[in-house]
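Our consortium's second objective concerns turning raw sequence data into structural hypotheses that experimental partners can test. To show how far this objective has progressed, the report includes one record in full. It was chosen at random from the queue rather than selected for favorable results. The single chain below, 449 residues long, was entered without modification.
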Amino acid sequence: MVILRIPLPPPRAMRLSLLTALLLPLAVAAAPQPLDRIVVVVNDGVVLQSELDRAVQAGRRQIEERGIVAPSESALRGQVLERLILTRLQTQRAQEAGIRVDDRELNEVLAGIAARNNMSLGEFAEAVRKEGMDYLALREQIRDEVVVSRLRAREVDSRVLVTDQDIQLFLGSRAAEDSAEYRLTHILVALPEGANDQARAEARAKAEGLRKRIAEGEDFAQVAIAHSDGQQALQGGDLDWRKRADLPELFAGEVARMKPGDVSAVLETGSGFHLIRLADQRNGGERQTSTETHAQHILIQANALRTPEQAQKLAAELHEKLKNGADFAELAKQHSDDPGSKNAGGDLGWQPVGVFVPEFQQALDGLPDGGLSEPFKTEFGWHIARTIERRTRDVTDETKRARARQAIQNRKSAEEYDLWLRRLRAEAYVEYRLQTAEGGAKAAADDPS
């Protein structure tokens, strides 16, 4: 249908001062060094000392903005370095797969970020520099983020299948009925694929030790930053607000028994050992309704045989005929340029608010039931619209199914992405050239062979 559009959720607004919380590692300007050094060799690429220094500085800024006391320098550098390695591995894989983001595409992404901050691209660049960040390095950081996102969509998300049976099982679970939202923080002690019994025992002992430290008064977020192998470690393990249905199954079962402030026992999955803390909880979810309109329309477009002025004139002539009693469906079949509704007499069916482009929706909203609009223009051409009837419908069950599908998709995708990253890391050649963040020298390479 020509005038229909699929509404996308608007990008989450963000303040420029919080940009460091969204893009890791940020390109914070560092003092010039007389000689750069290789910190790590990653396959046929490298991570430089200057990159690590910038990323550590950005990570520290992010932690401070969250009001968390930063861990020791060595612990922070270890976390940041591992994330740089994972990013480098993914951008290498993307290059092999032919995934590129050219300067034009990158400028469009940056312009979108600038627009969400009510700035032009030039103003955004200047504001970034004023905050002490290297704009050119930030551009490359954002390019990497887009590349990694596209790689994940191709190699992970596209392979996740959600079946009707998955949805039925999900809706039949207690988690689906829980409309409350939970804010969790998370620590992961990861296990490599194929870990033996000794490795599992050592990882469990480490997780139990971390839990004991937290029970004795250490801050969960600080412990997460220093020791978690989870993707949100540098955010203090913060998983943000999620419905119980959106949580991994093991977490969903545990959180139902927790009160705000509680820390779980050590939980085991295939990826390792987990600790979760229920930071907060809030109620949510009521019956949901949708106001829908049943309408018809006639679309007149300019084309090779009809000028824009002639299109406007024809729309006015058809409108006059309709006012004089002509049949709307017959005129639509004869004259409408909308292939999706023409043969149905211009019938658009029942549609909720937000499906149509704004100009069309505004025209419908101004009409009573059975009302006929004046000719009006949208990006698609000239329209005449007629409302037939309106209704308010309970869409709670439909919304539940849609949310269930999305929750299952998100859960499966996150699990697959973690496994995929672990395999990518395990198969990589990683050689530490300088002292690691833990203070020891890793002269030997992580060579899968």
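The partners drew two points from this record. Residues 16-158 form a domain with the Triger factor/SurA peptide-binding fold fold (CATH 1.10.4030.10). Confidence is low (pLDDT under 50) at residues 1-34, 436-449. Both points have been shared with the crystallography group to help prioritize constructs.
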